[in-house]
Amino acid sequence: MDPSSPNWAATNTEETKSVHEEIDPVLDDRQPAANSSMEISDGASPQLAPSAQRKPAHSLYRLFKFVTIAWSLLLFIAQLVSVVYLPFDGIELMLKIFLSSFSVLIILNELEWWPALRDSPLFKNFITRGYFYVFLGLVSTEENNIKPSKGSVVSNLPVDYTAALFIETASWAMVAIGILYFLSGLCCGQYYINKVREDHSNRLAERKRIFEAGMKSEAALSNQMIT
After folding, report:
1. What does pTM read for this prediction?
2. Which residues are registered as beta bridge partners of 48?
3. From CA 72, how far away is CA 112, in angstroms rounded?
4. For 39-53, 118-132, 206-220, which range has the lowest pLDDT when averaged over its residues?
5. 189-200 burial, b if ≥16 CB within 10 A, otherwise e?
6. Cα separations (Å) of 37 from 79, 119, 216?
7. Do the beta carbons of residue 24 and residue 16 sit within 8 Å?
8. What mean pLDDT is predicted for residues 102-118?
9. What does residue 41 show for φ and ψ, rounded to 5 degrees?
10. 3-state secondary structure of 47
11. Which of 126, 195, 78, 163 is nearest to 134 (CA)?
């Protein structure tokens, strides 16, 4: 190219630009690989990874499960408190043992750690699960049903009445949780929650697939540059 030509600078710039355009596709392929956790190149355009954020309904359900676990633990403690502070006979002691064991089962079920409980027909369905929780709470309430005598005031309550109040609170909380589960099952809430959780699991699996594909693409590119 003649430097004296007036179009020499423009022509030189265009040639440089064309060279960069030939290199850009390589750079474009490397950029998604460097950020393989977010996107990869499928040969045509970068593929963005789906969001891993939970939907509000999913977050609310997880919070509800945490509340259920907390009250189940309090119900378990309440049975121990009743043994120490409240009078009982042999049958009532057996009931306390059963209630304690059922409280532990509820905690394991809400944590979904034990497949036998997670797939159990009793706990898998919200309607039967709520029915069981309500029954457990009512049995605990009736089994520890000790009322203050007439004319007594709260400040003069002995220790056993205070313990009974704690037990009744934990028991009625379990009844309320069971009712919420029961109503949610009747209103097809479980179907919606299962769809939301399945969608979240699919998005996590897709993110993992994209990440692994990005790592493979980056490794292949590195080997290609070395050779």
Report:
1. 0.65
2. 39
3. 14
4. 39-53
5. bbeebeebbeeb
6. 49, 34, 12
7. no
8. 89
9. -100, 130
10. strand
11. 126
The position carrying tokens 């292949």 is: 220
- Give the H/E segment covering residue 84: helix 56-85
* C-beta neighbour count of 93 within 10 angstroms: 12
Question: Has residue 180 got a pLDDT over 50?
Answer: yes
3-state class of 158 per DSSP? Answer: coil
Compute the average pLDDT of residues 185-196: 90
**Residue 203 confidence (pLDDT) above 90:** no
* Neighbour count for residue 117 (Cβ, 10 Å): 17
d(CA 128, CA 120): 10
Token pair 């030509």 is at which residue?
Answer: 5
Q: Calculate helix-pair angle for 90-111, 56-85, nearest 10 degrees.
A: 160
Rounded CA separation 40/56 (Å): 28
